[in-house]
């Protein structure tokens, strides 16, 4: 059974940093590209970033480019989203998802709140 | 970036009736489009990929059509569990982009 479990969310002040993790199991992690999607409270889905299976290629939404870094450790079956220079508008539930075309499996999300 | 526009924002339909949801891309995305369903407090659920192929385990009452810039999700006979928010997303270009969603509510 495919499982994706996000962690690392919490309350952070504007300008601060946070690192999210996503632990994957139930599939051959190193064979699949992965994705982060976020959802602000009461709002729609926003694609954040994608990473290739090897980690060599990454793509970002303009809203996070230069502030967020997506990486992976295939030996640990884990994804990381390093978020710097956080803003109030980054407040959202962050989901990791399998694949970067259609995302066929999703975690339950971790809430990031940026507030003073 | 490609802008995805869904219509209507809210659709009121009675159980047992057909629902038709639309998604338009600001430029061609070929058939590289997916549909998701999301219920309150839950992660999105993968419904349709390649514009028209149902994902594993998705009931046959869900169907997708279209290519290029115009896409449709049809639910042939609405069940109580189908009332939710539906999103389209293109995966033809970077960055990937979602539509703003259509809320399907009980009439």
List the SSEs and their pairings:
The complex is a heterodimer of chains A (116) and B (107).
Chain A: E1 3-7, E2 10-12, E3 18-25, E4 34-39, E5 45-51, E6 58-60, E7 68-73, E8 78-83, E9 92-98, E10 105-106, E11 110-114
Parallel strand pairs in A: 2-11
Antiparallel strand pairs in A: 1-3, 3-8, 4-5, 4-9, 5-6, 7-8, 9-10, 9-11
Chain B: E1 4-7, E2 10-13, E3 19-25, E4 33-38, E5 45-49, E6 53-54, E7 62-67, E8 70-75, E9 85-90, E10 97-98, E11 102-106
Parallel strand pairs in B: 2-11
Antiparallel strand pairs in B: 1-3, 3-8, 4-5, 4-9, 5-6, 7-8, 9-10, 9-11
Describe the protein's architecture and organization.
The complex is a heterodimer of chains A (116) and B (107). In chain A, 0% of the residues lie in helices and 50% in strands. Chain A has strands at residues 3-7, 10-12, 18-25, 34-39, 45-51, 58-60, 68-73, 78-83, 92-98, 105-106, 110-114. In chain A, strands 2, 4, 5, 6, 9, 10 and 11 form a seven-stranded mixed β-sheet that branches. Chain A has a four-stranded antiparallel β-sheet with strand order 1-3-8-7, with no helix packed on it. Chain A is globular, with a radius of gyration of 13 Å. Chain B contains no helices and eleven strands. In chain B, strands 2, 4, 5, 6, 9, 10 and 11 form a seven-stranded mixed β-sheet that branches. Chain B has a four-stranded antiparallel β-sheet with strand order 1-3-8-7, with no helix packed on it. The radius of gyration of chain B is 13 Å and the shape is globular. The relative contact order of chain B is 0.34. The mean pLDDT of chain B is 97. The A-B interface holds A 35, 37, 44-47, 50, 59-62, 95, 100-109 and B 1, 32, 34, 36, 38, 43-46, 49-50, 55, 85, 87, 89, 91, 94-101.
């Amino acid at each position: 059974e495919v499982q994706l479990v996000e962690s690392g969310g919490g309350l952070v002040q504007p300008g601060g940093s946070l690192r999210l993790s996503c632990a994957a199991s139930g599939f051959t992690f190193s064979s699949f590209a992965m994705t982060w999607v976020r959802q602000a409270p009461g709002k729609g889905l926003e694609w954040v970033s994608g990473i290739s299976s090897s980690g060599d290629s990454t793509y970002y939404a303009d809203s996070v480019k230069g502030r967020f870094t997506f990486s992976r450790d295939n030996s640990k079956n884990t994804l990381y989203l390093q978020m710097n220079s956080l803003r109030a508008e980054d407040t959202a539930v962050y989901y990791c998802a399998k694949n970067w075309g259609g995302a066929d499996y999703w975690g339950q999300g971790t809430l990031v709140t940026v507030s003073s | 970036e490609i802008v995805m526009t869904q219509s209507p924002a809210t659709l009121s339909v009675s159980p047992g009736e057909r629902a038709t949801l639309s998604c338009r891309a600001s430029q061609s995305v070929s058939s590289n489009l997916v549909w998701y369903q999301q219920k309150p407090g839950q992660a999105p659920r993968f419904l349709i990929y390649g514009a028209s192929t149902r994902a594993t385990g998705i009931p046959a009452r869900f169907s997708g059509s279209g290519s290029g810039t115009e896409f449709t999700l049809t639910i042939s006979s609405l069940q109580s569990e189908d009332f939710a928010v539906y999103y389209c997303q293109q995966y033809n270009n970077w960055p990937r982009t979602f539509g703003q969603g259509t809320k399907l509510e009980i009439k």
